[in-house]
Amino acid sequence: MGYFELDNGKITARIASFGAELQSLKDAGSGREYMWSGDPAYWKRVSPVLFPLVGNYKNKKTSFGGQEYVMSQHGFARDREFTRISGTDTEIWLALDSDEETRKSYPFDFRLELGYRLKDRTLEVLWRVKNTDSRKIWFSIGGHPAFACPLNEEGNKDGYALQFDTAGPVETRIIGPDGLATDEHEEYLLEDGRLPVKEALFDRDALVLEGGQAHSLGLVDPKGNTFVTVRFDAPLFGIWSPPGKNAPFICVEPWYGRCDHRDFNGTLEEREWSNSLEAGGEFNASYSISV
């Protein structure tokens, strides 16, 4: 595993070749770190890419062409070594290609390219999925960046808030203890677009917002200052902190895909919120982090 450093004089970023994972995003002047440290006592990851699955298959398996394929939560890309394909001081691209091992759990040939680009005080995270198979493929992709909250990772999150780009209310789908979607929903009223962060907010695990209810989410400190803003076009996103742990981070997760519903009994092609590509096709999406 290697690391790649980006620096535009305003912010710096460090990306690991393993999982093409963003490990650090700092203010170049003060050195303030905005990403979660990855302490395994709470959660060992920092910003994994979720591919080719977001969430869980029902019973951890799906079927395609009459054959079953087993995959763990959030797919395998986060646990694979990526290859650097290009880079400058402010932009880098890494790639993962299908191989014999990936085909054991995912039957398609693909090329996944991840890019990171610094612009002013914003880090753009770019996804490119290429269908290198001779047939149509199906996949999901998502981000899972974890931000230090509180900023110094000390104390609790009382007094912090989530800033939506909508007046609300917003509706979340409840994910059950089995990691599958339920028919239950919960509605949250916002005040000036804000939702206070209480530890109990994550008692039922991630807040999952479907149907493009918002396309920007900021983390606000007790003084009312927004210190991180995530912007995205994704149709779904999750907000997560480990339930019951008072963990000093919050994840803002843009998703093109979601876990199966607990009543789902279909095939890979029939999954909700899935994406498809014809042979030779290319899927491009991105999100950004501004500090």
Automatic annotation (TrEMBL):
<dbReference type="GO" id="GO:0016853">
    <property type="term" value="F:isomerase activity"/>
</dbReference>
<dbReference type="InterPro" id="IPR011013">
    <property type="entry name" value="Gal_mutarotase_sf_dom"/>
</dbReference>
<dbReference type="GO" id="GO:0030246">
    <property type="term" value="F:carbohydrate binding"/>
</dbReference>
<dbReference type="InterPro" id="IPR008183">
    <property type="entry name" value="Aldose_1/G6P_1-epimerase"/>
</dbReference>
<dbReference type="GO" id="GO:0005975">
    <property type="term" value="P:carbohydrate metabolic process"/>
</dbReference>
<dbReference type="InterPro" id="IPR014718">
    <property type="entry name" value="GH-type_carb-bd"/>
</dbReference>
<protein>
    <submittedName>
        <fullName>Aldose 1-epimerase family protein</fullName>
    </submittedName>
</protein>
<dbReference type="InterPro" id="IPR037481">
    <property type="entry name" value="LacX"/>
</dbReference>
<dbReference type="Pfam" id="PF01263">
    <property type="entry name" value="Aldose_epim"/>
</dbReference>
